[in-house]
Write a structure and sequence with these properties.
The radius of gyration is 24 Å and the shape is elongated. The protein has 450 residues and is an alpha/beta fold. The longest helix is centred in the N-terminal third of the chain and has 23 residues. The protein starts with a helix and ends with a helix. Strands 8-9-7-10-6-11-12-13 form an eight-stranded mixed sheet, with helices on both faces. It has a five-stranded parallel sheet with strand order 2-1-3-4-5, with helices on both faces.
Length: 450
């Protein structure tokens, strides 16, 4: 037994290391340069030339303190923009206007208040490009997608300082508020994770029609569509095939609407095509949908890999779903240890016990909390309505039983998510229905159907 436990622990450490390596592989540097107040500026360029020009232009002033951050690729630029919300981002325009537009949209998606300026050289664009875009149409096009200014390279000190002053000045325009995103995860199947994700999204959609997106990121075998009795013609796979023109408008066009008011971005049609989707592309999609929807609910596959980590990085909360069965509880202990090793914040985690049954030999609420060394945040007792609803493709959230335990648990999760949108603190919002709600052992037929 000790040998198998040692192998398991080694496997967990190896997985943690691989995911951590994928998150820091490009390495990002930050430098503090004294010039006025404290402003974060994000530089996006494939070479060091832009940083050197900015440093040189800043060297003549001493009235502000600027923190420069540099990213060499789109993924790292988005990560920094999301984490820092910089006042200004200077993005190199190497001659590919389409690539510049994609970068601009991605930064705007995660940090709407960031002013973005394009840094260009007069010889960057080919003569053919200039001929096809007379009278500065290239810059007009960039302005239309949100660029606020442009800097001619090599960057002069006067131009840069004027740009910083404009970016730092309060803007009368109100920036769009990014939507709330939550993810439902587990490292064990059969615990009702997808059922919970579908019904939470459905209830949110009933309260906020047209403002809720359910993403089926269980890429290998997504089942959100049949649970909603939908037959999608498009899926996450189409976001790959349309990556060159992907924006918030196209994202909505690729979803499938449901009568409850939610939109579904379905899983790929098969496991083979699902391999085309990687964590970098999924991060782009997640950043875009937050600009288009008030609430985004993400269902996931019961395993832990870079895809799941990308989802958790983007989400405001991660709901860890389990049932009160000993092997499941022990597997969640391992998942918590893995998240600890990756530095995933405890305040972004929620424990949701689903299908809670008072059966002889099953762990009680106290047993689970003792084993996990943390409180249960949400508890939903077993209810055969949930199984029936899944079988007929009609979420039980559409026909609430107001005094049932499962309804109380669902309302608790929905209230917590809505609280994130209204600015209420996510921490300390423990919502646990009364464990004394009757939750009998299912009969033989119910167990077979489950």
């Amino acid at each position: 037994m000790s040998g198998s436990r040692r192998q398991r622990d080694n496997a967990l450490r190896t997985l943690s290391l691989r995911i951590l390596q994928s998150r820091i592989i490009h390495g990002l540097r930050s430098e503090v340069i004294s010039i006025a107040g404290q402003l974060h500026i994000l530089l996006v360029a494939r070479d060091e030339g832009l940083r050197e020009e900015v440093e040189s232009a800043l060297a003549t002033a001493s009235h502000r303190q600027v923190v420069l951050h540099e990213a060499r690729d789109l993924t790292r630029a988005v990560d920094l923009a999301r984490d820092l919300s910089p006042v200004l981002s200077i993005v190199d325009m190497p001659g590919d206007i389409e690539a510049f537009k994609v970068t601009l949209r991605e930064i705007q998606a995660v940090s709407p208040g960031t002013a973005i300026a394009g840094a260009y050289r007069s010889d960057a664009f080919s003569s053919e490009v200039w001929e096809q875009a007379k009278q500065g149409a290239i810059f007009v096009e960039a302005l239309r997608v949100g660029a606020r200014d442009f800097l001619r390279r090599p960057i002069s000190s006067i131009d840069l300082h004027q740009l910083i002053e404009r970016a730092a000045a309060p803007s009368p325009a109100t920036a769009a508020v990014a939507g709330v995103m939550v993810a439902f995860i587990s490292n064990k199947g059969g615990v009702g994770k997808t059922t919970l994700a579908v019904n939470v999204a459905t209830r949110l959609a009933q309260r906020h029609p047209g403002e809720v997106l359910l993403i089926d990121a269980s890429l290998q075998m997504g089942i959100c569509a049949p649970m909603l009795d939908l037959r999608p013609k498009t899926s996450l796979l189409d976001t790959i095939r349309e990556r060159s023109r992907l924006d918030v408008t196209l994202i909505r066009q690729l979803t499938t609407p449901h009568s409850s008011g939610l939109d579904l971005l379905a899983a790929p049609p098969d496991a083979v095509s699902a391999t085309e989707i990687d964590d970098e592309h999924l991060s782009r999609v997640l950043n875009l949908v937050r600009r288009s929807y008030r609430y985004v609910v993400v269902d996931t596959f019961p395993m832990f890999d870079r895809i799941i980590m990308a989802i958790l990085d983007a989400a405001d909360l991660g709901y860890i779903v389990l049932d009160n069965v000993v092997p499941t509880v022990l597997s969640i202990v391992q998942l918590q240890q893995l998240l600890d090793g990756l530095g995933y914040p405890e305040e972004k985690r929620r424990i949701a016990v689903n299908r809670m049954m008072r059966v002889s030999g099953n762990p009680t609420q106290a047993d689970i909390e003792t084993t996990l060394r943390c409180p249960i945040d949400h508890l939903l007792p077993f209810d055969k309505r949930a199984i029936t609803a899944a079988n007929i493709g009609r979420p039980f959230a559409l026909t609430p039983g107001w005094w049932s335990g499962i309804e109380k648990g669902l309302r608790g999760i929905v209230r917590e998510i809505e609280g994130l949108r209204s600015g209420q603190p996510a921490t300390g919002s423990r919502v646990v229905p009364d464990d004394r709600e009757p939750s009998r052992e299912p009969d033989e037929e119910e167990t077979r159907r489950e």
